[in-house]
Amino acid sequence: MSRLEIDWTRCDGHGLCAELLPGQITRDEWGFPVLAPTVDDTYAARRAAALCPALALRLEVLGEDHLGARASLQYTSTR
Amino acid sequence: MTATTLAAVPAGTWTIGAPRLLAGLDRYATIDYGAHLALHGPLPHADRARLTALLEDVALTGRGGAGFPLAAKLRTMPHGQGTVIVNGSESEPASFKDRTLLRRAPHLVLDGAIAVAAALGARQVTVAVHDRPAALAVRRAVSERGDCAHVRVAQTHAGFVGGEARALWRGLAGGPALPLGRRVHLTQHGTLLSNAETLAHVAVALRLGPHRFRDSGTHAEPGTTLLTVGGAVARPGVVEIPLGTPLGIVLSAAGAAVPQAVVVGGYHGSWQARPDIQLCHANGLGAGVISVLDGSTCALGELARVASWLAAQSTRQCGPCRFGLPALARDVAGIVAGGDVATAIHHAQVVQGRGACHHPDGAVRFVMSGLHLLREETVRHRTAGGCGRPIRGQLVVPT
């Protein structure tokens, strides 16, 4: 199980993630992403995270460390 | 972010039950080091293990609003290094309790900070304050005692969200005083940050020990806590109560004649009508602000003013907060003018949980609990076009 995480301080509402993951991500009235609780296509989600122009999207593996302390367990976009 | 000034400053202090933090303030305007030692006695030493066990025993939680257990912070700090930051920025508009402590009883706060720093082996203590008289009082207190060579006082200038722990930490390090986008634990960076009142309770706990500390308060939340009581009351001020005291007791002691509504926990808190709720952190006491509205004011209008102020406090980092809170504030203004509540509910749901800090969540809690409690008022405004009452400003909004 995994889930998408947004760094809201980075997200500018480009909307590419909603284009790449139409079933998982919709957009609110200002264009910012609204996420489904969990991710079903991990490969597509990881690709969307990597392609986010603001580097604001991250795929986090659930059931390991919710606090994000062990970064090695997360699939992060390269920063 | 501009500096905020308070419209009204509660001057008095009073207590329900025996005072701990406010002890002596009925006799002294400010408690100097001599008076402090006479009142409380010398500060007992505690090593890291003993202090952590004590804080766990007395279940001391943060009094800045979040109510996080202090013992848990101590346990995750590195050994023999680091910094202790006293958060005295008190950015909650109607709150005055941290400033009262720092201005009038600064040695209790210093005691707590010094004891925590000594137990951790931390080399520096920073007291972050927004209020100039408080900064002066703490500097004077530091100069009175010989154990404060590692203590510095920093005057901060950030607004409501700038007082958030991570924002304050970044600001003190020379960065922007803005919340971080990623989840960062300050203790992993060797920083123990705690609210001023919380550290004063450490000083009290060290002297009383766990058993006497537990003489006051409830089993789950022992001890006392500070409130700032304001609005439509005969005796506004900073009040020390045993945790778990029913709201109604505080309201009658404060001389709140016939409350229309009460806001508990400040502007990230909630609107309450039940006088039997116990004031404790499990019930959303937050930073301890109790604001009373009587029947002479338009409560919906008061709600709209605060909603608009909350929207203006967004640091505009996160889209949903930056656009969503102003939309929510416009919705509430529309309800005052006789509009429907549906769009407000929609915008509240859109904003909730979508930000780097808890400002959007706190603002939504405040607005939605208000609309729920004032639902008959919303009907009255919709059917009669208003309630005919002026907005008296019983909920203080900084100018």
Strand proportion of chain A, as a percent range, falls in 15-25%
Largest interface: A-B, 18 and 19 residues
What is the number of strand segments of chain B? 10
Main β-sheet description of chain B: 6 strands, mixed
Output the radius of gyration of chain A: 12 Å
Distance between the termini of chain A: 24 Å
For the largest sheet of chain A, list the strands in their spatial order.
Answer: 1-4
Secondary-structure-derived class of chain A: alpha+beta
Low-confidence stretches of chain B: 1-10
Strand content of chain B: 5-15%
Globular, elongated, flat, extended or rod-shaped: what is the shape of chain B? globular
Computed over alpha carbons, the radius of gyration of chain B is 21 Å
Quaternary structure type: heterodimer
Number of helices of chain B: 14
- Which residue ranges of chain A are poorly predicted, with pLDDT under 50 across at least 5 consecutive positions? 65-79
N-to-C order of helices and strands of chain A: EHEEHE
Give a count of the beta strands of chain A, DSSP E runs of length 2 or more: 4
Characterization of this structure:
- The complex is a heterodimer of chains A (79) and B (399).
- With 79 residues, chain A is an alpha+beta fold.
- Chain A has helices spanning 16-20, 42-51, and strands spanning 2-6, 25-27, 33-35, 57-61.
- Chain A contains two helices and four strands; from the N terminus they run E-H-E-E-H-E.
- In chain A, the strands form two sheets. Chain A has a two-stranded antiparallel ribbon.
- The longest helix of chain A has 10 residues, at 42-51.
- Chain B has helices at residues 33-40, 48-57, 70-75, 97-104, 106-120, 132-144, 165-172, 196-213, 247-254, 299-312, 319-336, 342-351, 359-373, 375-384; strands at 13-15, 83-88, 124-129, 151-155, 191-195, 224-231, 237-242, 259-264, 270-272, 289-294.
- In chain B, the strands form two sheets. In chain B, strands 1-7-6-10-8-9 form a six-stranded mixed β-sheet. Chain B has a four-stranded parallel β-sheet with strand order 4-3-2-5, sandwiched between helices.
- In chain B, helix 10 packs antiparallel against helix 11 and helix 10 packs antiparallel against helix 13 (359-373).
- Chain B is α/β, with parallel strands linked by helices.
- Chain B is built from 14 helices and ten strands.
- At the A-B interface, loops of A face helix 11 of B.
